[in-house]
Fold this protein.
Amino acid sequence: MNHFIVSFILFLNVTLLAILVPGGPIENRDFSRLKGVVFWGFNVFLISLGLVTFWTSYAVLKDVSYAALMIKVVAVGYALVYALDLAMIFPKSPTKMSKTLMLLEIVNLSLAVYSFILSEFI
Protein backbone atom coordinates (compact mmCIF):
# COMPACT_ATOMS: atom_id res chain seq x y z
CA MET A 1 0.00 0.00 0.00
CA ASN A 2 1.28 3.40 -0.88
CA HIS A 3 2.20 5.28 2.30
CA PHE A 4 1.27 8.57 0.66
CA ILE A 5 -2.34 7.46 0.16
CA VAL A 6 -2.71 6.34 3.78
CA SER A 7 -1.12 9.55 5.01
CA PHE A 8 -3.46 11.59 2.80
CA ILE A 9 -6.53 9.76 4.15
CA LEU A 10 -5.42 10.55 7.71
CA PHE A 11 -4.80 14.17 6.77
CA LEU A 12 -8.22 14.34 5.11
CA ASN A 13 -9.91 12.98 8.23
CA VAL A 14 -8.28 15.52 10.54
CA THR A 15 -9.08 18.33 8.09
CA LEU A 16 -12.72 17.29 7.94
CA LEU A 17 -12.79 17.17 11.74
CA ALA A 18 -11.39 20.70 11.91
CA ILE A 19 -14.19 22.18 9.80
CA LEU A 20 -16.77 20.70 12.17
CA VAL A 21 -15.92 23.02 15.08
CA PRO A 22 -18.96 24.38 16.91
CA GLY A 23 -19.95 27.77 15.56
CA GLY A 24 -18.18 27.00 12.31
CA PRO A 25 -19.65 26.72 8.83
CA ILE A 26 -21.26 23.30 9.35
CA GLU A 27 -21.70 22.60 13.08
CA ASN A 28 -24.71 24.62 14.19
CA ARG A 29 -25.83 22.74 17.29
CA ASP A 30 -26.00 24.25 20.76
CA PHE A 31 -23.68 22.60 23.28
CA SER A 32 -24.23 25.06 26.12
CA ARG A 33 -25.67 22.21 28.21
CA LEU A 34 -22.25 20.57 28.38
CA LYS A 35 -20.70 21.71 31.64
CA GLY A 36 -17.11 22.53 32.59
CA VAL A 37 -15.15 19.29 32.82
CA VAL A 38 -17.22 17.48 30.19
CA PHE A 39 -17.02 20.37 27.72
CA TRP A 40 -13.30 20.95 28.17
CA GLY A 41 -12.51 17.25 28.38
CA PHE A 42 -14.26 16.65 25.07
CA ASN A 43 -12.45 19.58 23.46
CA VAL A 44 -9.08 18.42 24.78
CA PHE A 45 -9.80 14.94 23.42
CA LEU A 46 -10.70 16.32 19.95
CA ILE A 47 -7.65 18.61 19.84
CA SER A 48 -5.40 15.75 20.97
CA LEU A 49 -6.94 13.46 18.36
CA GLY A 50 -6.21 16.05 15.68
CA LEU A 51 -2.61 16.57 16.79
CA VAL A 52 -1.93 12.84 17.06
CA THR A 53 -3.43 12.38 13.60
CA PHE A 54 -1.06 14.99 12.13
CA TRP A 55 1.86 13.17 13.77
CA THR A 56 0.56 9.81 12.54
CA SER A 57 0.23 11.12 9.00
CA TYR A 58 3.87 12.21 9.15
CA ALA A 59 4.95 8.91 10.76
CA VAL A 60 3.31 6.97 7.93
CA LEU A 61 5.24 8.98 5.34
CA LYS A 62 8.50 8.37 7.23
CA ASP A 63 7.67 4.64 7.60
CA VAL A 64 8.04 4.73 11.38
CA SER A 65 7.81 1.25 12.88
CA TYR A 66 4.81 2.01 15.09
CA ALA A 67 2.81 3.92 12.44
CA ALA A 68 0.32 1.06 11.92
CA LEU A 69 -0.50 1.01 15.64
CA MET A 70 -0.92 4.79 15.64
CA ILE A 71 -3.30 4.56 12.67
CA LYS A 72 -5.43 2.07 14.58
CA VAL A 73 -5.53 4.28 17.68
CA VAL A 74 -6.63 7.41 15.78
CA ALA A 75 -9.07 5.42 13.64
CA VAL A 76 -10.78 4.06 16.76
CA GLY A 77 -10.83 7.59 18.21
CA TYR A 78 -12.56 8.98 15.13
CA ALA A 79 -14.93 6.04 14.89
CA LEU A 80 -16.01 6.53 18.51
CA VAL A 81 -16.51 10.28 18.11
CA TYR A 82 -18.60 9.96 14.97
CA ALA A 83 -20.52 6.82 15.95
CA LEU A 84 -21.53 8.29 19.32
CA ASP A 85 -22.60 11.53 17.68
CA LEU A 86 -24.53 9.86 14.87
CA ALA A 87 -26.26 7.61 17.42
CA MET A 88 -27.20 10.76 19.37
CA ILE A 89 -25.47 9.46 22.51
CA PHE A 90 -22.81 12.16 22.99
CA PRO A 91 -22.70 15.10 22.78
CA LYS A 92 -26.41 15.81 23.24
CA SER A 93 -27.86 19.03 21.88
CA PRO A 94 -31.38 20.44 21.74
CA THR A 95 -30.58 21.53 18.18
CA LYS A 96 -31.04 18.88 15.51
CA MET A 97 -28.02 17.74 13.47
CA SER A 98 -28.07 19.20 9.96
CA LYS A 99 -28.07 16.91 6.94
CA THR A 100 -24.71 18.33 5.84
CA LEU A 101 -23.19 17.58 9.22
CA MET A 102 -24.65 14.08 9.22
CA LEU A 103 -23.25 13.40 5.74
CA LEU A 104 -19.79 14.63 6.71
CA GLU A 105 -19.81 12.55 9.87
CA ILE A 106 -20.75 9.45 7.86
CA VAL A 107 -17.89 10.19 5.44
CA ASN A 108 -15.50 10.70 8.37
CA LEU A 109 -16.65 7.50 10.04
CA SER A 110 -16.08 5.65 6.76
CA LEU A 111 -12.59 7.14 6.49
CA ALA A 112 -11.83 6.00 10.03
CA VAL A 113 -12.88 2.43 9.23
CA TYR A 114 -10.93 2.53 5.97
CA SER A 115 -7.84 3.84 7.79
CA PHE A 116 -8.09 1.02 10.33
CA ILE A 117 -8.26 -1.55 7.53
CA LEU A 118 -5.36 0.05 5.63
CA SER A 119 -3.19 -0.02 8.75
CA GLU A 120 -2.86 -3.77 8.21
CA PHE A 121 -0.96 -3.09 4.98
CA ILE A 122 1.56 -0.60 6.36
